[in-house]
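User: Sequence in, structure out. Go.
Assistant: Echoing your sequence, followed by the structure tokens.
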Amino acid sequence: MDRREFLKNLGVAGAGALALTSPWLSTFASVDDSAHERCRLGMIGPGSRGRFLLEFLSKNPKCEMVAFADIYQPSLDAALEMVPSAKTYTDYHQLLEDKSIDGVVIATPLNTHYQIAMDAFDAGKHVYCEKAIAYTMEETLAIYRKHLETGLVFFTGQQRLFDPRYIKVMDMVHQGVFGDINAVHAFWNRNGDWRREVPSPELERLINWRLYKESSKGLMTELACHQLQVGTWALGKLPVRVMGTGAITHWKDGREVYDNVHCIYEFDDGRQMTYASVISNKFYGLEEQILGHTGTVEPERGKFYFEDYGPAPAPAFVQMLMEWEDKIWGANTFAGSSWDPEVARNNPGEYILGKSPEMDGTSLLTEAFVDAVCTKRQPPRIAEEGYYATQLCLIGHEAIVQGKPLPFPEAMKIEYKPYGTKGSEK
């Protein structure tokens, strides 16, 4: 999907109007300014996620991918198949020493993000860092402050910020189309051990870094980071407290991170956002259920539903049972509120964009980063949204580890209100 189709689907006249809905997209208003520009990027960590981003970056006419750095040779070899002309390094510092490189994309294991990002900023490079931004809350704050100090562009891998479904529906949410939003239930379920094949035993912790405490915080940093940002985007607030629980209940294979987690985020007005992830059952998949008193939104499905959808009749076989039981007992025990679930089940809803989802925003996110690097302009709010997404998943993980409710630390707060908060649109 290109920008023109993107804007058309959202029903706005141009990028300027779109920026009123999601200010980080103001970068699209700079398209003409960067029309004849070209930036040179390097990628640190061209593993599976890095190469997924490379599919978009390598096709962007404003971007030249000139270098890759990785300590794992097969990843470098795979990246070279996509961009044969690029230089390769086994030490990322050598890539950063190339003064002709304007920016870097960091797609390495979580525990390495902090040092690489700090070194990249110190080298004068614009930075795109995959989520979560860092391994600790303190590291996350330090990276954000370095971004402000240097004035360099800083993007995070929060592609839902650029997903047309989410942008359109959040505009509707903030306009009150679905009434008061009282809760968000987010979940991401899979059925798989999350392992990757290891060609040699000594490479286990390098390749399966997501399974070990020294390099990962598991489901909270790898999955929850996306969905918690959706919740604060919808509610227009940051939570004040979180509690959670987690365990290894199915994949008992030597991993150190939980294979199921559940958290409750509390807000100062009593509203709640829940998050759950289980990787031993995929039936319900992933979703962020945004619950308003006049409607419900399921952005992953790309649909919304209004509460005033008419009552659904009981299925034929149930009507038969009701008639049969009424004859025996003289009362209809199936009547009334017990059939409320049927209303939801038979409500077909409406597509947010008039059709099923076709993309997740990654192409537009990478496009926006390239334009931002070309123009050397940081789009408003995108760094801050990414910052809090990381901090919320990290405090949630810590609440699980400590086994008690934790407040959001005052020391980790920055001068920012989530978009949608009263007065935050300016």
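User: And one key feature?
Assistant: The chain has 14 helices and 15 strands.
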